[in-house]
Amino acid sequence: MKLKGILFSIFMFLYSSPIGVLAHGTEEEHQQEVASNTFATNGLLVSAAILVTGIISIFVMNRRMKTLNVKKQKEKGKRDSLQKGVKIGQWVSIVSLVGVISFGIFSFINTKAKDIENSVELMHVHGLGITNDGEEIYVPAHDGLKVFEAGEWRSAKGDKHDYMGFSMVDDGFYSSGHPEPGSSMKNPFGVVKSNDMGENLEILDLYGEIDFHGMSVGYNSHTIYVFNPQANSRMDDVGLHYSMDDTKTWVKAELKGISGKLSAIAAHPTEEKTVALGTTEGVFVSHDGGQTVNQISNLPVSGLSFSRQGDLFAGFASDKMAISKINLETKEQTAYEIPSLGEGNAINYIAVNPNDENNIVFATGQKDLYLTINNGEEWEKIADKGTGIASQSLTGEGEHEHEHEHEDNGE
Hints:
Elements: H1 2-16, H2 19-22, H3 29-66, H4 73-117, E1 129-130, E2 136-140, E3 145-149, E4 152-155, E5 162-169, E6 172-178, E7 191-194, E8 202-205, E9 215-217, E10 224-228, E11 239-243, E12 251-252, E13 262-267, E14 275-279, E15 282-286, E16 294-297, E17 301-306, E18 312-317, E19 321-326, E20 333-336, E21 347-353, E22 356-364, E23 369-372, E24 380-384, E25 387-388, H5 392-395
Antiparallel strand pairs: 1-2, 2-3, 3-4, 5-6, 6-7, 7-8, 9-10, 10-11, 11-12, 13-14, 14-15, 15-16, 17-18, 18-19, 19-20, 21-22, 22-23, 23-24, 24-25
């Protein structure tokens, strides 16, 4: 009968045509994701449509059979035909119901997989950096680099090394740290750099000898400052050292005038011998490569970073956590209102967009990350205790609630 042909034609179209979409081939990953999502959505809709059509058909045919007089041979034949149609409708309805359930589960798994992909886990946070075009935030997170771009998280290409002392520069990054498990590279790294965001590493110095946790590199000057924790083949003593020629030579800084325990280092983006140091007793700045320093703040420092324009951003940890921008020429400080971070959740790392000083991101000791694109008027949380959070405002997927909290010790 016609109904049987129509139902089976739709059925065969639904369950055979999408197979080619899921086949492995040379399509780009994005195209595969779009095809997969389209397949799941269309399959769910078509299965649901067939299920509704089947149920309606069964109902109509049952109503029709009740009107027939089975004592008449002609109408008895119609009843037999309708009974066959009901059986076909029942089978099609059962199969389409299975399709609705299957495609529903498939769609749910796709959504969850995307959520997991866009919500990376930051096992540790060992630095922050923003690329030269201002589009990507990089976070070294023990198991490789994590990237926040256009409101979404992903893992960077390249090996999953444990980068320490991570410092973004205009054409890539410098770092120290340790190789990932199973890597053929020596442990620790000493000083390495990359011009392709970690896909390849260039070994510079002290390879297999030392891991620098305290390290900062000038964004444009590429002057390297490290705090050496122990004597090694290139440095006879502990303390601050710098190199202006990609580690060919090192100079030890005397740090005359500094006090407190060192907690942060920030190399000026363009002035090779200008470096800021944070200690438990304040912010100190040197213009002679760390030989002498001058104190410009007396609050305990947890994190430091220069903007590309040369302003110094400091994270303070005293009675409450705070961020201030310091003009090195005038010593003027501009305090930012930030979300309440909780006791002991100090600001360890700060990064400023090279192209827009209104765009700031900071990371805390408890692996919370906050982002502002309007100079601190509003802050959005993009990682909560190490779990990445997609930004609805930057992806354009809808409205979201900004973190717009004033500092409040009572919270």
